[in-house]
Amino acid sequence: MNSSSAPATLRGPSTGLWIVLLIIAFAAVVLPTVAVVLAPRPAASPVLAEIARPKRVVPAAELPEVEPVRLAALSTDDARAFNAAIPFSTAPNPAARPLVLDAGAEDFGRAVDCLAAATWYEAGDDPVGQRAVAQVVLNRMRHPAFPKSVCGVVFQGQERRTGCQFTFTCDGAMRRTPSPAAWGRAQTIARQALTGAVFAKVGHSTHYHTDWVVPYWSSSLDKVAEVNTHLFFRWTGWWGTPPAFRRGYAGAEPVVAKLAALSPFHGGGEVALAAAVDPAAMLDPATIPESAVPKPVAAGGDSFHVALDKALGADAFAALAIRTCGERAYCKFLGWTDRTKVPAVGAALTPSQIEAMSFSYLRDKEQGFGKALWNCGEFKRPSPIQCMRRTPIAAAVAPAPTATPVGPDGLSGVRRKPGPSPTPAASPVTS
User: Fold this and answer.
1) Contact yes or no for 333/370 (Cβ under 8 A)
2) Are 206 and 140 in contact, with CB atoms under 8 Å apart?
3) How would DSSP label each residue in 48-61?
4) Which of 13, 65, 331, 357 has a C-alpha 20 to 30 A away from that of 228?
5) Which one has a higher pLDDT value, 405 or 327?
């Protein structure tokens, strides 16, 4: 007998199984989300937490601290992103007042070369960047928190590898030297800044750095300007306003041995003084014949009263004085173009003779001093710092100057604050 079985009925998973599958799916999606939400947040980057400082307004009665130059350990991209996130200050950004350095020829020469070095090593051979750097140096010199001389500001902390304020002074960058043409351009910008030129855009900035690094002080100051890749900052509150920049110039510049290869003013040599008079009209003292050298006022003395020949030219007076003084450690050279005013041998100077004096030169090697001055009513000079002060008239014949007190490092009144970071032609940071 043939028989056949009916096919079995096909049924899906039971209701209970569906519920289990749904729970598993829900857990697979929801639990990770809950875990992320409820998990403890990772600590913020210690570097970012430390550099994102709130601004601190230092009271006017408290001198702000010059912080060491310490850079955050950030990549170039992260540093640029951090710097871009710091907004520019919306407060007024007035230009600094013009500065005309009141210094003798030799001190002025030292100041020019210190400032030229800062502009070239910090900004490279870029005139706009150089003017911005020069303005920051002069702003610092006028601010009570910094040294009172141009060289003191530029080379502050240079004796410590991690203590300099301008990194080129302690990171080995000065082993490179600019070409003569580039150095001349930097000197020109420095002279302009020291005789009244102002770079208005940076206002009263005292700090700057390149946009690819972040110093720890960066976010605590007011960001006021951007010049090429450099960002410029001033202190917040009263210390960043024009009245804070009230301090006067020290009146003398220290000799900086590190500049000896670039600057005769920092390496010795009195031909440098003739060069300071007007580099384009320099006359080598050695070219002046022995027959033109006057005799001292007294035999074996170190004072000379000289009738000057106008035909020689005002720029040659300094060279004549240097040639006349020879190897004397101390020498006083006084000259008149009006022969009737030259004092008789052994006679004291009268007020009218002092007033009529055309040129004076005083040297004191023991004090590292050498100064040439002209009567600017008689001779036009390129800078007022080369002019005799008509009052008090005794200044032209003053005795040897008293040495300026200096510290063990040879810099007068320089307070030290640290700071590192290398770059050869355009230094990334200063403090």
Assistant:
1) no
2) yes
3) HHHHSPPP----TT
4) 65
5) 327
